[in-house]
Design brief:
heterodimer, A: alpha+beta, Thrombin, subunit H, 4 helices, B: mainly alpha
């Protein structure tokens, strides 16, 4: 017993070091799959106060650029509304509204903190549970997709961005219909890659990449980027596709969160697939 | 008392500057500037390792929570705090450390500071990037990031001392 106490006294510093180190590293390694809490996160009370203070200064830096972008989006949408059209023939047209049902709703938000130099980049949004944000919802901006909601507090949320290891968004190459998973290798914040595209598909440089909308996180057809480089992977019948993101994540500010109104229905249906047949 | 207040202000400044300025900078080619190990370095010589570890832990958590790195900065700073007494012992001057002095660029001499702080910074950055990637096939990228970031962080740390840490009066 005496020896044991002496041992502990001798190694207490090393043990404290190991203990704190275990805490830090376990929080870090768990964070990618599931955040342990809101404590070591940018949506904790103190961090949010600091970030809000910072944001109240920095949000004006890109104001002109952001306004131009929002205006361009407005014009694009305004072209589509009925008052921008004239009727070409005067026959009565009946529009049956019940043909369509709202599938997606969008919640506007603002990014108050972001980074793009780390291996895993998380963005902080100024909307949270009170605005209807839940873990797992998709986030996109006018120029492209941004990421998936990772952690939520009452008024704020953290987005796991597409500049993260294992983000795995379902994407499709628009012209050829080939689909794969979006990956990011941690090197260049303006380029990503797609895995799992078999090399018998005909793919062209410059082809548009859009979301596939399979998992119900994003609607189909949101822009992701354009293909920049194509290379066959040695020893596998696959293409190594590198593309350029259409969004510049260094400047991004205004985003929308996707709320899928039919997600529950889709999930219930997919639950009925027998377990052993799922890949 | 004055010393404690100075250290508290320094602590807060380091957390804020690191997380709001240097963690937001995008220089490219994998450079990431980290200056906060300087705080642990500049603590008085007689600070106990226990206190060093606790301070490193709190500071790391502060930076982690603001910049969403979930414990990565904490882990690397804990290592710096644990290694500081060891490195200090290795590079100890012949007559031992003068407890009135600070472990800064001006008070301890350039050669001593470059070797001690250089080693600590290298350990810190290497640990940080290794765990950030956590992939043996990316070892090249880890080394590239470390070798590019350490000199820049080091120069900035000297620059910060030139501006903010008082020079010893000429006698």
């Amino acid at each position: 017993m005496h020896n044991l106490i002496a041992f502990f006294r001798r190694f207490r510093i090393f043990m404290l070091f190991v203990l704190l180190q275990i805490f830090a590293l376990s929080t870090y390694f768990k964070s990618l799959s599931f955040p342990r809490s809101q404590f070591v996160s940018s949506i904790s009370t103190v961090s949010i106060a600091i970030l809000e203070g910072k944001n109240s200064v920095t949000k004006y830096w890109n104001l002109g650029e952001n306004n131009r972008q929002l205006q361009a989006e407005n014009i694009r949408l305004r072209r589509k509304i009925s008052s921008s059209f004239i009727r070409l023939n005067n026959k009565i047209v009946k529009i049956d509204d019940s043909l369509y049902q709202q599938h997606y709703e969008y919640i506007p938000g603002e990014i108050i903190n972001s980074s793009c130099i780390k291996r895993n980049n998380f963005f902080t949004l100024n909307i949270g549970k009170n605005q209807g944000i839940k873990r797992g919802m998709g986030v996109f901006s006018d120029n492209g997709i941004v990421g998936v909601i990772h952690n939520v507090s009452a008024h704020y949320s953290v987005v796991k961005s597409v500049l993260t290891e294992g983000i795995n968004v379902d994407v499709i190459i628009e012209s050829s219909g080939a689909f794969g998973l979006l990956k990011w290798d941690g090197r260049d914040p303006s380029r990503g890659s797609i895995s799992g595209i078999s090399n018998d598909m005909k793919i062209k440089k410059g082809a548009k990449i859009v979301t596939r909308g399979g998992s119900g996180i994003f609607p189909r057809g949101l822009l992701v980027g354009r293909i920049e480089k194509l290379k066959p992977i040695e020893g596998k019948p696959l293409w190594d596709v590198t593309f350029k993101y259409s969004e510049d994540y260094r400047k991004i500010q205004n985003v929308y969160v996707v709320k899928n109104l039919l997600l529950e229905e889709q999930e219930q249906l997919e639950k009925k697939i027998p377990e052993d047949k799922v890949e | 008392m004055k010393l404690i207040i100075t250290q508290i202000i320094r602590f807060l400044l380091f957390v804020l500057i690191q997380s709001l300025v240097f963690n937001q900078l995008e220089i490219g080619i994998g450079i990431q500037v980290m200056i906060y190990p300087l705080f642990i370095m500049l603590l008085p010589f007689e600070t106990s390792v226990l206190l060093l570890l606790v301070l490193a832990f709190v500071m790391g958590l502060g930076i982690d929570s603001i910049s969403d790195t979930y414990g990565l900065h904490t882990s690397s700073l804990l290592l710096v705090a644990y290694m500081r007494p060891v490195i200090f012992k290795v590079f100890a001057p012949r007559e031992g450390y003068d407890s009135i002095k600070e472990a800064s660029f001006f008070e301890m001499g350039q050669r001593w500071f470059i070797s001690v702080f250089g080693t600590l910074l290298l350990i810190h950055h290497l640990w940080f990037f290794l765990f950030e990637m956590f992939n043996m096939s990316e070892l090249g990228l880890v080394l590239q990031k470390t070798s590019l970031s350490v000199p820049l962080s080091f120069l900035l740390c000297i620059f910060l001392q030139v501006i903010f840490v008082a020079k010893p009066k000429e006698r």
